[in-house]
Amino acid sequence: MDSSGTAFQISGIRVAAGETREIYLKVSESFLANSILIPVTVIRGVKPGPTAYVTAAIHGDEINGVDIVRRLIFDLDHENLAGTLIAIPVVNIPGFVSQSRYLPYHRDLNRFFPGTRSGNNAERVAWRLFQEVVRHCDFGIDLHTAAEGRKNLPHVRADMSDARCRALARSFGSRVIIDQKGPKGSLRREATDAGVPTILFEAGETRRFSTSVSLEGLRGVLTVLEAQGMWTAKRKAKKPPFQVIVKNSHWIRATQGGILNLEVRPGELVYRGDEVGSLLNPFGRMVTRLRSPVTGIVVGVTTQPLAVPGTGLVHVARLKKTLSRVEKEVRARVARKSRLKTGRKAP
Ligand SMILES: [Zn+2]
């Protein structure tokens, strides 16, 4: 939807070309009878172009995206923006205030899109956001972090069978793309089904900011905007050393209960049969060694030290064709790190 020429409006507030407006979108009310308002920044470029949304904290405790959206709004000069950027740093206001994933009544907002006008509390919030923002856009990026108790390698999730999502995901430039439609009722799946292709960026941990995650997220959003003709970067973005599209991933789960001693981190390579950690009993004796049944790159780990049979510990994306490229890059990275530690110069 090319928004050039016509006034763009959200919640009845018009935004002219070249204008930036901060709008509060009422989506619900609290137990105190106050309005629940989502802060929406609409940045309209002077030049015509597509309309895009970037959302964060649909899960209220996943706050890394809040920092990415803040940087998107404040750290950039939007003079050369083409089209309209709708930046929403916090979608789930009650969850953000209480630092919880959920809306009241333990409802996960990201399972209730596109919502309904007269449904339950989550459906109503979803409906307002979908009607007022999402359906006016050409594409979107939804920012998340790993769920509580997990840490992820920054990655994109997208439905790679959809050509528009595939183009967005590829241009984001993350090393790992997980090829999934997303759960029913999630914003990215329902928006894509409604004709607004949407991808998800997932990185870091709940309730934390990480500068490296923020910078990677911001860079990714900007390269997507650039690929869609909305943004011109001063410097050409570096291509990732590899880009793995993961259809097939495997959770290494605890086979017994115990105290976890994990020996791998996100971004590391594991080979079939490699030891990834062990489980100890309260006396500190080894209960079992944990081995990876697959070869691949670690995309997520638990951050919790305790496990029972079935606890997901290490999430491995299987690698086949791309294994040698990933090996080369991982080896180069390890060598760089050890040079830094020992102070030796590169040969
Ligand atoms: Zn999330």
Key traits:
347 residues; alpha+beta; Aminopeptidase; OB fold (Dihydrolipoamide Acetyltransferase, E2P); 2 domains; 13-stranded mixed sheet; four-stranded antiparallel sheet; 24% helix; binds zinc ion
Describe the structure.
- By secondary structure, the protein is an alpha+beta fold.
- The protein has 2 domains: 220 residues, Aminopeptidase; 95 residues, RNA polymerase II/Efflux pump adaptor protein, barrel-sandwich hybrid domain (OB fold (Dihydrolipoamide Acetyltransferase, E2P)).
- It starts with 7 loop residues before the first strand and ends in a 5-residue tail after the last helix.
- It binds zinc ion.
- Zinc ion (ZN) binds next to loops.
Which SSEs are present, and which pair or pack?
Blueprint: E1 8-10, E2 13-15, E3 20-29, E4 35-44, E5 47-56, H1 64-74, E6 82-88, H2 93-98, H3 121-132, E7 139-144, E8 150-158, H4 163-172, E9 176-179, H5 187-193, E10 198-204, H6 211-227, E11 244-246, E12 249-253, E13 258-262, E14 269-270, E15 275-280, E16 286-291, E17 296-302, E18 306-307, E19 312-318, H7 323-342
Parallel strand pairs: 5-6, 5-7, 7-10, 8-9, 9-11
Antiparallel strand pairs: 1-2, 3-4, 4-6, 8-10, 8-17, 12-19, 13-15, 13-18, 14-17, 15-16, 17-19
Zinc ion binds next to loops.
Gyration radius, rounded = 21 Å
The CATH architecture of the largest domain: 3-Layer(aba) Sandwich
CATH C-level label of the largest domain: Alpha Beta
Apparent shape = globular
CATH T-level topology of the largest domain: Aminopeptidase
Tell me the helix content: 10-25%
Separate helix tally: 7
CATH level 4 superfamily of the largest domain: Zn peptidases
Q: Ions, cofactors, ligands: which are bound?
A: zinc ion
* pLDDT < 50 runs, ≥5 residues: none
Mean pLDDT: 92
Quaternary structure type: single chain
Query: Into which percentage range does the β-strand content fall?
Result: 25-35%
Order of helices and strands: EEEEEHEHHEEHEHEHEEEEEEEEEH
